[in-house]
Structure prediction request, 619 residues.
Amino acid sequence: MKQKFDINRFKDNMFKYFGLACTLFGLAVLSIFLINILIEGLGRLNWQFFSSLPSRMPEKSGILICLLGSIWIMVLTAIIAVPLGVASGIFLEEYGKKNKIASFIEINISNLAGVPSIIYGLLALEIFVRILGLGKSLLAGSLTLSLLILPIIIVSTREAIKAVPKSIREASYALGGTKWQTIRFQVLPAASGGLLTGVILAISRAVGESAPLIVIGALLYITTIPTSPMDDFAVMPIQIFNWLSRPQKGFIENATAAIIVLLLITFIMNGLAIYLRNRWQKKIKW
Amino acid sequence: MKKTTLLSLFSISVALLATSCGGNKSEKKAEETNGAAQEQKLAGAVNIDGSSTVYPITEAVAEEFRKVQADIKVTAGLSGTGGGFKKFGRGETDINDASRPIKKAEDSLAKANNVSYVDLMIAYDGLAVVVNPKNEWCKDITVAELKKMWEPAAQGKIKKWNQIRASWPNEEIHLFGAGVESGTYDYFTEAIVGKSHSSRGDYTASEDDNVLVQGISSDKNALGFFGLAYFEENKDKLKLVGVDDEKDENGKGPMTPSIESVKNKTYAPLARPLFIYVNSAAGKRKEVQAFVDFYMDNTGALTKQVGYIPLSDEETAKEKSKWADFVKSVSAQ
Prediction:
């Protein structure tokens, strides 16, 4: 009896150290990447880099157009995908009946989340660029990326809503609240944390995508600043990809600097999510 | 709540837009006064897509062109030669950058959509065969030997240097080369193995030539190939191998790639021409004509700066007159 207890205890400890080792491994790899990138690229970050057009000379080229393109894409994609995704998530979770059609839709949405992004690019090239005649505009690009991240937003919305305790809904109904009032004033605020995390992760993924945008014909060399959703555009990941593959050393440095900027955008987004989550959660008093 | 987030994001981007727009305008003005002495000012757009190999040349030309014709909006994408031709064949782009001639299927797509075009040679790209600087035995290699080590039949069999040439040491050979999705791979296999897109599979492949440079520079038994520009930038870490095609009309003995040997075609068969394809309907437009004129006039000097090899003077003259004839014929229609 005593022996068995010891073995179990040993296993317990082993798993603890195994988990610790896995965590440290991930952190170590991440910090090596980050330090490497910071050392190589930090020196390149100056006003000239942010305010210049593409150039054949690495020291003269900059990310003005593609940075603005990426910001446009991020905002437009959020405007399109977040309401659609969150609303579909709410419908499927709260209103949808649990029948065969519902489970069919459910399986398909989960599958869509795993489709390679370039496939969305091919679909978008036909539908948005050619049939709808949007051209290779910011709007076409954002619609493409919205398709790509919709499944992620829907799935994470549903998970967040599922995590809200049933007692809260029942309390709301007991006080005479309608379904919409329950969702609006109880379920959504309570689910906001998970909901926001999902949305931010999805948008961060959209900002880092290049393959589907290359397929729909996003540009690399462009000298005009995008001022409307119908304008042509370039984005950061395509520029980074191109710089990394060029022979001249200076371009590699440019690429690492651009990676730092892209990382910063993602960090700011994540920070924003954490800030909003904390603010919302303070307001919830049960 | 969500509204305020989006609003604040928007206001950030609008603020960025405002500052950057301001900067850009003053720049434009300065350039306009610079170019005031130039011929007539044109406006419009030139829409380019295609090969990422040719992209650096197009980028360089567009960058210089902007100093002369600031109001012509030149844009370039990089869908690759094939992806670009699919758009070009539907008349969606004015110019396609190409690292190989147009294929039959692409040409029939263009015909089906009533797209006619002219192909203009603009530069050469040389492929360098390189080894590690510590490798003292391999100074030159024949095309037949290259084929012996790269052909599909070599897979799993040719593993030692002395299997290629008896005087080379009994050491393992490690091969590095372009990934199978790249145009560079197609072109190397076509020239060496004799059949495009066919080689052994057990070599270290990367679409990023800088990765290949890294690999070869840290492995004494390595041999690999990539664009000449990557060798030029990493001369201290690599050693160039002379290539002998055993045909005396292309220069006797092994040749190393250089501006001279590529230009006079003695570095065969590892030098390929690069092209731009211009759509006929676009060729009627003044702004496209101005851009291609500028391209043909300046490609020689700019090509060298971005690491490729310019055409010889006669070839440049020939391509220019081909372009001039083309403009005449489409304008007459």
About this structure: Chain B has two domains: 41-125+273-332, 127-271. The CA atoms of residues 205 and 229 of chain B lie 18 Å apart. The radius of gyration of chain B is 23 Å.
